[in-house]
Design brief:
By secondary structure, the chain is of the alpha+beta class. The chain is built from five helices and eight strands, in the order ααββββαβαβββα. It folds into two domains: 65 residues; 125 residues, Glutaredoxin (3-Layer(aba) Sandwich).
Length: 231
């Protein structure tokens, strides 16, 4: 409506507009919130268009990321496989499937056990330095027993073949088969035949200490017995 014209007359040629001015500005809150929502929607649309444009322009980004992920997965799998293989094969320089070295176990309680050699009774600690072999029945370990007797004879220490009970005849026969001047010795108290597994070697040092190695029929390190026992 132009100034100075009649209320019913409009010289501008614009359509009539009904403008309502509220008395309280708080009545415009809903309109303001709707306006802000519209602005946020426009910003989201702009960000989406920018991301889409980046991917469209650099079409190699996504395939490159996928290739990097696949490479990382393959590398991790191969590393795990090689690590497990190295553990199974053991330390470098050790043949696969090689038996571990025999473990020496101190046995001070056996030092006072009695054995009879040629009819004379002795405490075990008084025989040192010596190696005493206990060969269990039905043990396929004659080769290992003969090797231990040979090592003991080569080291210049006494070497005995232990037996218990009334098996002296069998012990003497086995001592002859093993050779190397191995001497039969009877375990009087029976303490040397209890709780031990397989072919067992009792090591008595010159100072009278006693230790033992057991299950020697599976060991490939018999030459280390005398060194470990410090005979």
């Amino acid at each position: 409506m132009s100034p100075g014209s009649d209320p019913e007359r409009d010289d501008t040629g614009l359509p009539p507009v009904d403008v309502e001015i509220p008395d309280d500005a708080r009545e415009l809150d809903r309109d303001v919130q709707a306006y802000h929502r519209e602005l946020r929607a426009q910003r989201r649309n702009q960000r989406s268009r920018r991301v889409h444009g980046l991917l469209s322009r650099d079409s190699m980004v996504v395939p490159l990321l996928i290739c990097c992920l696949v490479f990382a997965l393959i590398s991790g799998t191969l590393l795990t496989l090689f690590t497990a293989t190295s553990i199974d094969q053991g330390v470098p320089g050790q043949a696969a499937g090689a038996q571990p070295a025999p473990v020496m176990t101190p046995a001070p309680r056996l030092a006072t056990d009695a054995v009879t050699v040629a009819g004379n009774r002795h405490q075990l600690r008084s025989l040192g330095p010596a190696v005493l072999l206990m060969v269990p029945a039905r043990c396929s370990c004659a080769v290992q027993a003969e090797e231990i007797a040979s090592l003991a004879q080569g080291a210049g220490v006494y070497h005995y073949l232990l037996y218990t009970g009334d098996s002296s005849v069998q012990a003497r026969r086995l001592a002859l088969e093993l050779g190397h001047n191995i001497v039969p010795a009877q375990d009087v108290t029976g303490g040397l035949d209890k709780g031990f597994k397989g072919l067992t070697a009792f090591i008595v040092t010159a100072q009278g200490s006693v230790s033992y190695f057991q299950q020697l029929e599976t060991s490939q390190h018999l030459s280390e017995l005398l060194q470990l026992g410090n005979v």
